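Saturday, quiet lab. Running sequence design on the structure tokens for the scaffold JK sent over.
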């Protein structure tokens, strides 16, 4: 298993950099385009939620990301140091009427095969662990 660690600023400008880094890494690992694109959507949504919602939109800390890849799956551990999110308030279902916002968690849960939201134990902050089982064996 290969492991990669990244740290990004929690601002909207970092989202483009995150997408570029993920695309380069996943292409190098041999991901097929459809698989690569959908995983990038899920990770982007997770990071966008930190940028937009952590500490009520006033979080100025970092987004820490660890990516673990093997031949069967890819996992993303994404953490912030913001105030704890009320895990009971997270909604994962599709809304009846489409409107801007509110579909990020739905997309994450539809795209990824396993999604676990938790609080960091040693310090303030939130953790999201997402895993995608791969359709084809990749090079890493």
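Result came back. Writing it out in full:
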């Amino acid at each position: 298993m290969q492991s990669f660690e990244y740290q990004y600023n929690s601002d909207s400008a970092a989202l483009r950099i995150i997408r570029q880094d993920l695309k380069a890494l996943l292409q190098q690992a041999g991901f097929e385009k459809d698989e690569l694109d959908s995983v990038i959507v899920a990770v982007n949504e997770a990071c966008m939620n930190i940028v937009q919602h952590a500490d009520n939109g006033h979080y100025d800390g970092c987004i820490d990301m660890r990516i673990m890849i093997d031949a069967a799956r890819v996992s993303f551990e994404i953490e912030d140091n913001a105030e704890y999110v009320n895990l009971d308030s997270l909604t994962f279902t599709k809304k009846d009427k489409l409107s801007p916002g509110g579909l990020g968690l739905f997309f994450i849960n539809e795209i990824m095969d396993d999604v676990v939201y938790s609080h960091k134990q040693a310090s303030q902050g939130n953790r999201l662990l997402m895993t995608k089982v791969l359709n084809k064996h990749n090079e890493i």
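Notes for JK: The mean pLDDT is 87. The radius of gyration is 15 Å. Ask whether to fix the surface positions before the next round.
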